[in-house]
Amino acid sequence: MKAIAHTNYGAPYVMQLREQEKPTPKDNEILIHVHAAVVTQADCYLRRGKPFITRLFGGLTKPKFIPGAELAGEIEAVGSKVKLFSKRDKVFALSPNILGAHAEYICLPEDGIIANMPSNMTYEESVAICEATTALTFLRDSASIKKGQQILINGASGAVGICAVQLAKYFGAEVTGVCSGVNIEMVRSAGADHVVDYTKNHFTKHNEKYDVIFDTVGKTSFQQCKHSLKENGVFLETVISFNVVFQTLWTRYFSNKKVIFSATGLCQNKDNLRFLKELAEAGRIIPIIDRHYTLEEIAEAHSYVEKGHKKGSVVISL
Questions:
Q1: The whole model's pTM is what?
Q2: Which candidate in 94, 116, 117, 242 could, as Cys together with 126 as Cys, close a disulfide (CB 3.0–4.6 Å)?
């Protein structure tokens, strides 16, 4: 099978397409023929090994793994003890340990983070919905979002951001999205009540205060934003660093305004996928896809994502 090999940290060209042995499912596993995956900023951090803390997940000196966390595809074979899925089921999934999706085939345990695809969506659309798991975990589980709260989403036009706008509206929040001017209408159409163009002014210069500030792109900090938080407000950060870990621990005990980082890829469950499937089928969350690439174009996909200007998801079609 074709798969992306990642054996060195560095620029996008370290990602190489190679032939590898097709996996065989164990008794409790399903073999998925992958039809779509995504390239995320997290994939870029793991490829670079920067920030250094990401090497705790990928290897301290040298990575040796197939990258990719989210996928959608068709089940080609099932193990002898599998009961939850059948051959030819169309599924979307998160791979364990945030690895393995950038390949033609992957084996996953049937009790893993797998669900049947939304019936009204393609493989590419379904894998874009997978990216909403990050926003869901931060907003619902970490911030305990409530109806009527004021939520600001920085990076609202990105893959996680555009999903966060839609989910925050679903939960009844008043949403402010931060993006560039060219993406204002897209963010408004996703449900944002207010939009701030960061190329003209920084949202911290306004007098507004928020219950939750969700930085989906790691472009700001708690120090910059704490004066824009209400008392008992929460600052959500998706990009891990030693400083973020320190602030998370410090504010837990010494501040009424909290910093929360969560390794959401490691704490997902299939109920989250089922929840998003229901929302997608009801039209409450709609995937936004910026560009499509092939597996052979993985380096180009990484280069584009790394620029930080994508609108929604960057999809790999296999």
A1: 0.91
A2: 117
Q: Is 28 helix (H, G, I), strand (E, B) or coil?
A: coil
Measured distance CA(105)–CA(122) in Å, rounded: 18
Among 3.10.310.70, 3.40.50.2300, 3.90.180.10, 3.30.70.1070, what is the CATH number of 2-131+266-317?
3.90.180.10
Cα atoms found within 13 Å of the Cα of residue 208, Cβ hemisphere only: 19
Q: Which CATH class is domain 132-265?
A: alpha beta
pLDDT of residue 59: 76
Q: Which residues contact 196 (CB under 8 A, 6 or more apart)?
A: 176, 177, 178, 179, 203, 206
Decide: 86 and 78 in contact? Cβ < 8 Å.
Answer: yes
Per-residue b/e over 264-273, b at no fewer than 16 CB within 10 Å? bbeebebebb
Q: Are 157 and 314 in contact (CB under 8 A)?
A: no
pLDDT at position 88, please?
97
Peptide bond preceding 23: is omega within 30 degrees of 0, i.e. cis? Answer: no
> Taking the domains of the chain in order of start, what are their residue ranges?
2-131+266-317, 132-265
Q: Which of 19-28, 37-46, 171-180 is predicted least confidently?
A: 37-46
Pairing of strands 174-179, 194-197: parallel
Place of tokens 């560009």: 291
Strands in 142-285 per DSSP E: 150-154, 174-179, 194-197, 210-215, 229-237, 258-261
What span, in angstroms and rounded, lies between the C-alpha atoms of 294 and 298?
Answer: 7
CB-based contact 228:213 (threshold 8 Å):
yes
Q: Which residues pair with 103 in a beta bridge?
A: 3
